[in-house]
TrEMBL record:
<feature type="binding site">
    <location>
        <position position="38"/>
    </location>
    <ligand>
        <name>NADP(+)</name>
    </ligand>
</feature>
<feature type="active site" description="Proton acceptor">
    <location>
        <position position="141"/>
    </location>
</feature>
<feature type="domain" description="NAD-dependent epimerase/dehydratase">
    <location>
        <begin position="2"/>
        <end position="243"/>
    </location>
</feature>
<feature type="binding site">
    <location>
        <position position="187"/>
    </location>
    <ligand>
        <name>substrate</name>
    </ligand>
</feature>
<dbReference type="InterPro" id="IPR001509">
    <property type="entry name" value="Epimerase_deHydtase"/>
</dbReference>
<feature type="binding site">
    <location>
        <position position="215"/>
    </location>
    <ligand>
        <name>substrate</name>
    </ligand>
</feature>
<dbReference type="GO" id="GO:0050661">
    <property type="term" value="F:NADP binding"/>
</dbReference>
<feature type="binding site">
    <location>
        <position position="180"/>
    </location>
    <ligand>
        <name>substrate</name>
    </ligand>
</feature>
<feature type="binding site">
    <location>
        <position position="280"/>
    </location>
    <ligand>
        <name>substrate</name>
    </ligand>
</feature>
<feature type="binding site">
    <location>
        <position position="53"/>
    </location>
    <ligand>
        <name>NADP(+)</name>
    </ligand>
</feature>
<feature type="binding site">
    <location>
        <begin position="201"/>
        <end position="204"/>
    </location>
    <ligand>
        <name>substrate</name>
    </ligand>
</feature>
<dbReference type="InterPro" id="IPR011912">
    <property type="entry name" value="Heptose_epim"/>
</dbReference>
<protein>
    <recommendedName>
        <fullName>ADP-L-glycero-D-manno-heptose-6-epimerase</fullName>
        <ecNumber>5.1.3.20</ecNumber>
    </recommendedName>
</protein>
<keyword id="KW-0521">NADP</keyword>
<feature type="binding site">
    <location>
        <position position="145"/>
    </location>
    <ligand>
        <name>NADP(+)</name>
    </ligand>
</feature>
<feature type="binding site">
    <location>
        <begin position="31"/>
        <end position="32"/>
    </location>
    <ligand>
        <name>NADP(+)</name>
    </ligand>
</feature>
<dbReference type="GO" id="GO:0005975">
    <property type="term" value="P:carbohydrate metabolic process"/>
</dbReference>
Length: 321
């Protein structure tokens, strides 16, 4: 059996699809199933059992001998949330319990970290674990992911294989439930579809023109391929970046979304909201060499390819992966 936590969410449900595609069907999905995510994101997938996240550790104690692998993707991901107690409960302490269970039962583990751990990027975006303690996240969400990464590296007891994946700006099908935390591409599609226009944040940094802010946008289909690769590799434990490896501007994103929708380009710039302005990242770009060094050589979707696939195969037909 393979366990996926956060399975009803964005990346988790896409991973279940990827596993099903190669006939991995004995999947235990773990999540808070009180929302519509389950009905939409997991509809039609081959799943052995649904386990509520609050019941998971009791279930694992009884069934660990049958578990082959754990993907821990469940988390509170709202970057505007300021209640540290929520992040301590769901992102830090829950993850520690999963780590300790994997150590006790010797189950290999892949868990979700985040590029938010890099903060403003003053030390760059290199997944060298030696510099990890020096990073300074900009929000409580990034802090929670960073605290767990640091805790992991301090542990003497480890699963025989583990990997933490620092997700950059992931976009793609099945993110529809995420509201304001969904990708810019998703919001761009909806704005263009509704109004024929797109609003982008104005730059408040002297080194960046409006729309020239850059992010590492990575398609969810690439993310789940890396997860699948690591499940089979089961060596070279560590913390890895998971982005496309190429920073692209929001103007690039906008132009490609308009093009994929066969719409004329109409862009308005609005002030970045004060609540996020001071903590806004103007540049992110994953150094992907470490992952390449362990054998992942599959090419990633370009931004053009990813947006076209997302818009024309999923958003426009209103489909789930």
């Amino acid at each position: 059996m393979i366990i996926v936590t956060g399975a009803a969410g964005f990346i988790g449900s896409c991973l279940v699809s990827r596993l099903n595609a190669d006939n991995f069907n004995d999947i235990i999905v773990v999540d808070n199933f009180s929302t519509a995510k389950k009905e939409n994101n997991l509809h039609g997938k081959k799943i052995k059992r649904y386990v509520d996240r609050n019941d998971f550790f009791d279930w694992l104690t009884e069934n660990y001998e049958e578990v082959e692998f754990i993907f821990h993707l469940g988390a509170r991901t709202d970057t505007t949330e300021i209640n540290k107690d929520i992040f301590d409960l769901l992102n830090l302490n829950y993850s520690k319990k999963i780590w300790e269970a994997c150590c006790e039962y010797q189950i290999p583990l892949v868990y979700a970290s985040s590029a938010a751990t890099y903060g403003a990027g003053k030390l760059g975006y290199d997944d060298d674990e030696a510099i990890l303690p020096l990073l300074n996240p900009l929000n409580a969400y990034g802090d929670s992911k960073h605290e767990f990464d640091k805790w992991v590296l301090q542990q003497t007891a480890k699963p025989f294989f583990w990997a933490g994946l620092k997700f950059f700006n992931v976009y793609g099908p099945n993110e529809y439930h995420k509201g304001r935390m969904a990708s810019v591409i998703y919001h761009a599609f909806n704005q263009i579809n509704d109004n024929g226009r797109l609003k982008l944040f104005r730059s408040h940094h002297p080194d960046f023109k409006d729309g020239e802010q850059k992010r590492d946008f990575v398609y969810v289909k690439d993310v789940v391929e890396v997860c699948y690769f690591l499940m089979h590799l089961r060596q070279h434990s560590g913390i890895y970046n998971l982005g496309s490896g190429q920073a692209r501007t929001f103007m690039d994103l906008a132009f490609n979304t308009f093009t994929a929708m066969n719409q004329e380009i109409n862009i308005d710039f609005v002030d970045t909201p004060l609540v996020i302005r001071d903590n806004y990242q103007y540049f992110t770009e994953a150094n992907m060499q470490k992952l390449k060094n362990i054998g992942f050589t599959r090419p990633f979707y370009t931004l053009e390819e990813g947006i076209t696939d997302y818009v024309q195969q999923y958003l426009n037909p209103n489909k789930y992966l």
